[in-house]
């Protein structure tokens, strides 16, 4: 089970490794770089859906300024995937708790 250790402005630590860029955390345990941006797009949702998550956690940045696009939200809803959105520091505990019992993916913005 993958675990998010911590988050601070400009970085996130997953399983002891610190990343200084936006990331995907996939149910398989892979952590991959996400293209920087303030909008979580349909293409990004299609990418994480390939791993069949039950829940997608959206880390909207330290101040919560990043947003899920309408078509990305519609895709998740159509797939029946639960969506949890919050400021990135606030999703750490939520992700870890959910990952104990569900297939969880996260798309995380590490700044703003």
Label this structure with key terms.
3 helices; alpha/beta; 10 strands; 27% helix; 112 residues
Cα separation of the termini? 28 Å
CATH fold assignment: Hypothetical Protein Mth938, Chain: A
Largest sheet data: 5 strands, mixed
Distinct helical segment count: 3
**Overall helicity:** 25-40%
What count of domains describes the coordinates? 1
Task: Specify the overall morphology.
Answer: globular
CATH superfamily caption: MTH938-like
Number of strands: 10
Task: Quickly give the CATH architecture.
Answer: 3-Layer(aba) Sandwich
Oligomer: single chain
Under CATH at level 1, the class stands as Alpha Beta
Mean pLDDT: 97
Assess the beta-strand content as a share of residues.
25-35%
H/E order of the elements? EEEEEEHEEHEHE
Q: Unreliable stretches, pLDDT < 50, 5 or more residues?
A: none
